[in-house]
Amino acid sequence: MLVAGIVLAWFGGEFFVKGGVGLARCLRWPSAVIGVTVAAFGTSSPELLVAIHAAVDGVPQISLGDVLGSNVVNISLVLAIVVALSGMKAEDDGVRRDWAVAVLVPGVVYLLLMDGWFSRIDAAVMMLGFVLWLLAVIRHARRHAANMEAAVEPVSPLKTGFAIVMGLALLIVAAQLVVDGGKGVAEWLGWSPFVVGAVVVAAATSTPELATTFIARMRGHHDVGLGNILGSNIFNVLFVAAVAALIRPYPVKLPEIVPSLAFGVITMLLILPGKGGHLGRGRGLVLLATYAAYLALTLKAGEAAP
Asked: Is the overall model pTM greater than 0.70, yes or no?
């Protein structure tokens, strides 16, 4: 299952990046906007499916662990691997806006859940934040389109749509294959639902982000890859986690989620674009070390949580 999932994720990423870049040209939107919306929402679809299934099955804590863990994995493992191999450059001014929102999200989650309960009111507040951010992204895209001439190279809407749908379908199937294998192993080890979500399911559902970001970097589309990661992190918490709580509100063990929230902020601070928007290879190595520390602390917190 793991091997099949990795292979499908690779081909799905190829299709998805190609379709995303084509869509950016059709709409005359910056590639970063496509990365932070279409690509991000698409590659976060496994997290959304997990959230719905977990809530319906009565274990919504798996969803919270999944989204918080995925956000750390997306930066300290997925982006870290790509940056450590070749570096990356943020070329769109909207990246800093999305970075700022992604930094604030863990703090908002902590304030909402510090009473030990993830209520429907908490979920509604997070949904409102998501809508406001999305409106800001669309406004930026429209302003860019108004100042940009039509693409010189003709783009086929049919081929673009096919590439996006095919890529998304392959990424969803790939993530499900990896999730099924990972969940069985973690449950056999006797970990709590949150830790299962934060460690195993999070790594598994981040497979699409890894494939999409790596392939986008290979093709020279830096902003698609970086936008994909930032958008996925915002979408995961403000939308996906909220969906699970809307379906089934549930109690939260604050000591259990603190490591994921803290590392969510730390990893985002480590990828603040430098001068000229450049992210050097050294940052990738630091992020990988951060991921190792995150795993150790999350497992320890899971054992200590009552």
From this structure: yes
Q: Would you list the DSSP string of 24-57?
A: HHHHT--HHHHIIIIIHHHHTHHHHHHHHHHHHT
Which tens digits make up the pLDDT trace of 27-76? 776 666 776 777 777 767 777 777 787 788 787 887 888 788 888 888 88
Please report, as a single letter, which amino acid is at residue 303. E
* CA-to-CA separations, 191 to 52, 68, 70, 184, in angstroms, rounded: 21, 17, 17, 11
Taking only the tens place, the pLDDT of each residue in 99-147 is: 889 899 999 999 999 999 999 999 999 999 999 998 888 887 777 665 5
Pick from 204, 202, 208, 210: nearest CA to 179: 204
What is the helix (H) or strand (E) element at residue 20, kind and residue range?
helix 2-27
Per DSSP, the residues of 187-230 read HHHT--HHHIIIIIIHHHHTHHHHHHHHHHHHTT-HHHHHHHHH
CA atoms within 13 A on the CB side of 47: 36
Count the domains in the chain.
1
Identify the CA nearest to 90 among candidates 33, 169, 43.
33
The full DSSP string for 63-99 is HHHHHHHHHHHIIIIIIHHHHHHH-EE--STHHHHHH
Q: Both tokens of residue 129?
A: 């934040």
Could you list the residue range(s) of the whole structural domain that residue 202 is in? 2-149+156-304
Cα–chain center distance at 219: 20
Q: What is the CATH number of the domain that holds 129?
A: 1.20.1420.30
Distance CA 253, CA 115 (A): 10
pLDDT of residue 246: 93
